[in-house]
């Protein structure tokens, strides 16, 4: 499946704040592969099919955002063309589709590949070919490696997985110092990093504190058996460490069905009320704790100008998608961040300079990030987003509490 997105136009209110850092580009135009005087071709893969297909909304909304930008005149006079192909969240397919985009379609760079495992499958190829892999969608710490992966930079949903795990542990151990925990984790790079981050944070106490840790596969039809086994430990807390909606939703529903009263922590990547919590039953999701970095989009009257602008954008450019689906607000934000990078690149749109700008973001504010959260990168630090707030699901929405947690 190929989705060709060209376009853009939007109410001025929906325009992301792109005031900007002066471009280091020279006045003379320089262009690399995928760039002409009128166009920038951008490659992307998304799970439009398969067990993670609900995440394909990110690709659709990113394409809608670029349509808006194009209607406003594009970036420095160039239109953005997003070539988005289906990989079914299967790494071998990601490799196949990425090679096609780079070698046949001639894209300038890859943008927003969905998931840790699919992004990992293409990282070596893209770094070897010196093709930027910009704002791939993963919170794995492995992407902050400018020395060994100088062409790969992620844009996570929340702080890195290991940091997120440490945040949850700190909270539960303050509430109940002798708490024992159970872990359900996705059996891939993402889930294994959550597990490792948990063990590292606990140190010598790990074997005493972790009552059990059980994996699941993305393609598994259900995680019920794992939840039953974890509940049998009578652990005080359950960490649901998945990044695909189905398993997270099933875990939430099953814990409620069996009456397991453990404090439940949900990975930030699964904190989507529309695709995860509603299928689980909102009543079953009550009390969940997660980490969030984006403003929750809720039903009813709005007073925040940034949220109003986003809802207007969705109504005009992506009316087929539910604006309350947090995949949409994430896509809106990540597409805005890429627009910022391309604006900074100015007239030098070589692959080298595009990557250089992605690695030189300074206190970038985007409308849907929570207060105090800004994007920062440097040639030595490829983590644009590292801060967040603890939040609890209550009254049908996520409610942030406590102070901003600053990532190290």
From TrEMBL:
**Ranges of residues in domain Leucine-binding protein:** 39-396
Keywords, ordered alphabetically: Signal
- InterPro entries, sorted: Leu-bd (IPR028081), Peripla_BP_I (IPR028082)
- Tell me where the signal peptide lies: 1-22
Classification via Gene3D superfamilies: 3.40.50.2300
What superkingdom does the record give? Bacteria
Q: Pfam families in the record, alphabetically?
A: Peripla_BP_6 (PF13458)
Keyword set includes Flavoprotein: no
The keyword Chloroplast is assigned to this record: no
In the record, the note on similarity to other proteins reads:
Belongs to the leucine-binding protein family.
Annotated protein name in UniProt: Branched-chain amino acid ABC transporter substrate-binding protein
What species does this protein belong to?
Answer: Chelatococcus reniformis
């Amino acid at each position: 499946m190929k989705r060709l997105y060209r376009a853009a136009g939007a109410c001025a209110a929906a325009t992301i704040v792109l005031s900007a850092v002066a471009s280091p580009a020279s006045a003379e135009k320089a262009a690399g592969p995928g760039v002409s005087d009128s166009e920038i071709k951008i490659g992307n893969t998304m799970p439009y099919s398969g067990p993670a297909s609900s995440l394909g909304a990110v690709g659709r909304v990113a394409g809608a955002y670029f349509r808006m930008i194009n209607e406003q005149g594009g970036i420095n006079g160039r239109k953005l063309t997003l070539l988005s192909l289906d990989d079914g969240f299967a790494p071998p397919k990601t490799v196949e589709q990425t090679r096609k985009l780079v070698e046949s379609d001639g894209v300038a760079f890859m943008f927003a590949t969905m998931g840790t495992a699919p992004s990992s499958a293409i990282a070596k190829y893209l770094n070897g070919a010196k093709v930027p892999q910009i704002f791939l969608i993963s919170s794995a710490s492995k992407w902050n490696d400018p020395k060994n992966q100088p062409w790969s930079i992620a844009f996570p949903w929340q702080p890195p997985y290991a940091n997120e795990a440490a945040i949850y542990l700190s909270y539960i151990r303050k509430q109940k110092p002798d708490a024992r925990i159970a872990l359900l984790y996705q059996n891939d790079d993402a889930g294994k990093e959550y597990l490792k981050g948990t063990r590292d944070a606990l140190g010598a106490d790990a074997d005493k504190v972790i009552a059990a840790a059980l994996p699941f596969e993305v393609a598994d039809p259900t995680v019920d058996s794992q939840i039953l086994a974890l509940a049998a430990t009578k652990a005080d807390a359950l960490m649901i460490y998945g990044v695909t909606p189905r398993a997270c939703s099933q875990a939430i529903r099953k814990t409620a069905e069996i009456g397991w009263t453990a404090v439940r922590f949900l990975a930030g990547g699964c904190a989507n009320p529309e695709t995860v919590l509603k299928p689980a039953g909102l009543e079953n999701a009550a009390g969940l704790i997660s980490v969030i970095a984006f403003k929750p989009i809720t039903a009813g009257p709005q007073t925040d100008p940034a949220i109003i602008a986003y809802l207007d954008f969705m109504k005009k450019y992506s009316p087929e998608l539910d604006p309350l689906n947090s995949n949409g607000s994430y896509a809106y934000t990540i597409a805005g961040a890429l627009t910022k990078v391309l604006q900074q690149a100015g007239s030098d749109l070589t692959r080298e300079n595009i990557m250089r700008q992605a690695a030189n973001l300074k206190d970038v504010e985007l409308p849907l990030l929570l207060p105090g959260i800004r994007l920062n990168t440097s040639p030595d630090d490829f983590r644009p987003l590292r801060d967040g707030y603890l939040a609890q699901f209550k009254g049908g929405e996520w409610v942030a509490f406590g102070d901003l947690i600053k990532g190290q």
